[in-house]
From TrEMBL:
Transferase listed as a keyword: yes
PANTHER family hit by this protein: COBALT-PRECORRIN-4 C(11)-METHYLTRANSFERASE, SIROHEME SYNTHASE-RELATED
Organism: Methanospirillum hungatei
Record GO terms (molecular function): precorrin-4 C11-methyltransferase activity
InterPro entries in alphabetical order: 4pyrrol_Mease, Cbl_synth_CobM/CibF, Siro_Cobalamin_biosynth, Uropor_MeTrfase_CS
Gene, per the UniProt record: cobM
Pathway in which the depicted protein is active: Cofactor biosynthesis; adenosylcobalamin biosynthesis
Ranges of residues in domain Tetrapyrrole methylase: 3-203
Keyword Methyltransferase among record annotations: yes
Annotated protein name in UniProt: Precorrin-4 C(11)-methyltransferase
EC nos: 2.1.1.133
Length: 238
């Protein structure tokens, strides 16, 4: 029996899907993709005879389509934005597929975090500035309580997903210094990408002034400063 392929589509630029992901997409019979989060050019380029936008679909609607496809001997692709390992909700899908005796394989993708770092020409871990990266999200409909305050006490690089509509609230709860560098990047690697630079105390207002209310990543830390203070050259090239 075939397996179902979970593929990371990358952050937006259709050329940033992996070679393996592209090859599998080209062989798809059934494609279930993550709505507006996946570049429509990728979806359009797939020869799949059946294409489903998963936006608004329940697991009970989506999983039977995948199961039917596999039992008909078809190649079934589940296409997620970025990398499925970050806020991709793939485990609940995989659990239901396993109950049907169907195996899966995951093909990683380029996270929007790395697309954003590339756009900023930044290094998330920079000797003398930050040796760690915290990836988190704010509380919301599916998370009762977050740890943004506690995590921001560490002084390490932070990336906050899924919080564009709460920037004022998030930044007001950060424990780091108000002058700490902060960046909001909308649609990293897409043609309409926007980069808003500021500090913890003014980034929310700047993003609002730019009309950014969704699909953006909040980055916090001095690794994103124009001239990161405290940077020490690595030993790699000494």
């Amino acid at each position: 029996m075939n397996k179902i392929w979970f593929i990371g589509a990358g952050p937006g630029d259709p050329d940033l899907i992996t070679v393996k992901g592209r090859r599998l997409l080209d062989s798809a019979d059934i494609l279930i993709y993550a709505g507006s989060l996946v570049n429509p050019d990728l979806v359009a380029s797939s020869p799949a005879g059946e294409k489903y936008d998963s936006n608004g679909m329940s697991l009970e609607e989506m999983v039977p389509i995948m199961v039917r496809g596999i039992r008909e001997g078809k190649t079934v692709i589940r296409l997620h934005s970025g990398d499925p390992a970050l806020y991709g909700a793939i485990v609940e899908q995989i659990d239901l597929l396993k109950q049907e005796g169907i195996s899966v394989e995951v093909v990683p993708g380029v996270s929007s975090l790395f697309g954003a770092a590339a756009a900023l020409q930044a290094q998330l871990t920079l000797r003398g500035v930050s040796e760690s990266v915290i990836i988190t999200r704010p509380a919301g409909k599916t998370l009762e309580k977050d740890k943004i305050f506690e995590l921001s006490q560490t002084g390490e690089t932070m990336a906050v997903f899924l919080g564009t509509d709460k920037l004022e609230e998030i930044t007001s709860r950060l424990a780091c210094h108000p002058e700490t560098t902060a960046v909001v990047i909308y649609h990293a690697t897409w043609p309409d990408q926007k980069i808003i630079r500021g500090t913890v105390q003014d980034i929310a207002r700047k993003a609002a002034d730019a009309g950014i209310t969704k699909s953006a990543l909040l980055l916090i830390g001095e690794v994103f400063a124009e001239d990161p203070q405290g940077h020490i050259r690595s030993f790699l090239y000494s």
